[in-house]
Fold this sequence. Notes:
- By secondary structure, the protein is mainly α.
- The protein is built from 8 helices and 3 strands, in the order αβαααααββαα.
- The protein has helices at 3-8, 38-57, 78-86, 89-104, 109-121, 131-141, 188-197, 199-206, and strands at residues 31-34, 149-152, 169-172.
- It has a 3-stranded mixed beta sheet with strand order 1-2-3, with no helix packed on it.
- The protein is globular, with a radius of gyration of 24 Å.
- The two termini are 45 Å apart.
Amino acid sequence: MNNNESMKQLPFLGKKTVPAALRKDLWQPLALIEFPSSTQGLAAYRKLREYRRLHETAYPLDIITQKDGKHKGQLLGTKKRGQVLMNQKANSVADMAAVLQQQERPPTPEQLERAERKIRKDGRPLAKRGLGKQRSAEAHSMGSVEGVRIRWANILDAEFAETWPAAVVHDGLGKSRYTAAYPPPPDEAALSELITENPGENVAQAG
């Protein structure tokens, strides 16, 4: 993880909403999306960035408004507002599904015409316009999601999206290099034996 590059992706939504640094031992990626071609991956990355910017700047006011209490109808405080706006996990997962569903559909004639119009407006010589790359990107970014694989840190996060394209493969990501180890699960047999041997102590601690 490049700390400087990662910090640039965090929006400033008020005082102390952006940490001074990201600790590698507490950081874990949400998911890793693998595409069969770089052009398809770049097209999806561009759309995801656009959606993220909309979530950060064009959100409905009701999500940062007090729902009850004596301050009902007023805006949340700066700290609470920042927490609400920076919690974009559900939106990010839904955006992934929406982008892949868009790529699953074949391009419309209007989209192809728009792409050709952009190429014709380019004033550079034909050899430098990247005509082949433009058409290849258009062909690979829409019409199929075969070969797309999503590896989740927590595969249950995929449930934030209503539907996924049937061709998309979901898998587990596993722990990243710097992720802190989870505490081992308690030994049920040893725990039951301890409770049986010292019932009074456990009751006192519980009280």
